[in-house]
Every structure is written in C-alpha cells, then in structure tokens.
Amino acid sequence: MNEATVVRERVRQKLYALCSFDACCIRTVDPNNLLTTGALTDSDIEEIHPQLFVNEYLEGDIHSQEEMVVSGIPVKVLSSSIYVKKSKRLRMILQPAGFKDEMRIAFVTGDTCLGFASLYRRHLAFHLDEVKKIQKNIKNIVNILNEHLLTATHKAAPLAIQPMLIMSETFTIMYQNDEARKWIHQLCEEESINNNQLPRSIRSISYRLLKEHQQYTKIMMRDSIGFLYALEASRLTDYDGKTVIVIKKSPMSHEDWFLYLTKCYKWTAKESEIIRYLIKGDTTKEIAKQLSISPYTVQDHLKSIFFKTDINTRSKLISMVNGN
C-alpha cells in the first residue's frame, strides 16, 4: 500500500471513529483547482461512482465541491438541506442503490482545500451532533493531509517517452502508448480499482474539460515514490469534427512548482516575492531596495520562511525552490 493510500485510509478511520457510516469515498485534490488526484472508495460506492461523477461535474446538484469550499460550511448533510427533494443524486443514484443519506466534508484550511469525503448511510440519517463532532475535528484531518503534501519536495524528472492516451468524449480509449498503459495500471493499483476502469484523476479532469468547455487544464499529481508531476488534459477536434480528449503525464513547470510550495508552506505574498528575488541572486540590500522596505524587514521575512520550511540556509531554500 503506497503512502497516498495509507493517508486516505487514516482519514477514513479517523472519520469512522467520529461518526459511523456504511460506505464512503475519500478524495484528495489538487488545491489549485479541486480536481481529484486519487481516491479511496468502498465497493458499494464504486458500483455507482460513474453516475456520481456525472452528477458532480455535469449536473449541478446541491452540495457540489465548489459550493462546499465557497460557502465556508465544511460539512453538509443531504437530508438536512431544504433542497433535498430536488437532488437528483439522492433520487436517481443513492436511493436506488439502497442509501438513505449522505454527508459531505471539505477539508479546508484558510483558502486551501486539500480533499473531500462523502459518507453514506443505508438506514439512518446523519444528525446535527455528528456534524458538529466532524466540524470540531476537521483541523486534525487537514493536518494529516497537509503532512502528506509536505513530504513531496521534489519534481519528477522528465521521461524519455511521455505517457499519452487519447479518448472519445464518452471516455473510450482510442489510443494509448505503452508508457500510458503502465501509468494507468499504476494509478489503478493506487486506488484499488480494476484496470478496465479509468482512474479518478483522469476521469475528473476530463469531466472538467467537458463541463466548462475548456481547451486545456492540468492537475498536480504525486507518483508512487512521492515526486510531483503534471497530469495534462487537452480538448481537441478530430478529422471528423468529433471531440477527443488527450491526456499526458508531464514534468511540472517551474511556476507550478513554486505555487505548490507556496500553498504547502503557507508563504505570504511578501515572502513569495522575497524568495523570487533570492532565486535571481539578489542580496538582502538589493531585495530591500526593490521592495521599498528595510534590510531588517527582509531578514525578518527570511526567518519566517526558514521556520516554515525547516530550512536554515539560503542555498538550501533556493535548491528546493528550483526542484533539486
């Protein structure tokens, strides 16, 4: 079991200790766009997961991921909503599968979301006391997810041959090279799903393209040894005028890597500015002059940066930011 799966299992156990449920799905996401990077899904939910994906990304039902984050309310129960009778997810997907209620949880810290959980019950509805108990413990679960993020401090090296697959807009694979087959197999293993299923990350990014009519988007992913890379998706038109989706595994750009580190270590805007000048080779006095602050203030910001990153020299900081 790889580290990402272990982390999701820890979150599942933590939630069950707080609130019993019959089935669940624990998802980690790219904090930049809320797209799924991986999931731990119970078998009962796995059977209806394709329908839940369509509902989440294409049908605009209540308690969507974006709504959970934007509303500032991290825990929501389907049966408690005044719009529950309008929920297609409950009527058309959950109830026919034997589920009575759903609790959704967004693992948010500040303005950053690190993942979601969906808990399901077959016979009993979730109660307010259980919601309050989960809300009190969200910070602890966020810390588990954040610690997992902080262990990924390297960019994956470029591959000699880039993994690539091409799908129809109904997600039928039309072409994939050998590298893509190996990559998908690895992703399926990490999520404990069959090789004939699409990994959550590829499915979520493809649905986002179709829903928002985007031409291109990407997810920050973590490989089995903890290195980071970009999962890229492009929406193109083939010779017959039909939509196709091209999926690639690519190295992270320097800017994406910097944004990732900024979120991981919670650098302020000023700290990020100072780090960018450090990378250019500027001295403390030069940085102070360009930012119109005193050298002592620059030093104070550097102390804060070193404390957050647990790094004690400029050279080590620059090396990390450069992905070395």
Description:
This protein has 324 residues and is α+β, with helices and mostly antiparallel strands. 46% of the residues lie in helices and 21% in strands. The chain contains 13 helices and 10 strands. The chain has helices at 3-18, 43-46, 49-58, 65-71, 88-94, 128-150, 178-191, 200-212, 254-265, 269-280, 284-291, 295-309, 314-321, and strands at residues 23-29, 36-41, 75-77, 101-109, 112-121, 164-168, 173-176, 216-222, 228-237, 243-250. The strands form 2 sheets. Strands 2-1-5-4-3 form a 5-stranded antiparallel β-sheet, with helices on both faces. Strands 7-6-10-9-8 form a 5-stranded antiparallel β-sheet. A hairpin with a 5-residue loop joins β9 and β10 (243-250). α3 runs parallel beside α8 (200-212) and α11 (284-291) crosses α12. The longest helix has 23 residues, at 128-150. It is globular, with a radius of gyration of 21 Å. The model has no long low-confidence stretch (mean pLDDT 91).
Quickly describe the structure:
By secondary structure, the chain is an alpha+beta fold.
Structural class, judged by helices and strands? alpha+beta
Side by side, the strands of the main sheet go 2-1-5-4-3
Mean pLDDT: 91
The major β-sheet equals: 5 strands, antiparallel
> How many E-type strands?
10
Count up the helices: 13
Order of helices and strands: HEEHHHEHEEHEEHHEEEHHHHH
Shape: globular
Oligomer: single chain
- Our Rg estimate from Cα atoms comes to 21 Å
**Spans with pLDDT under 50 lasting ≥5 residues?**
none
Distance between the terminal alpha carbons, to the nearest Å?
27 Å
Give the % helix.
Answer: 40-55%
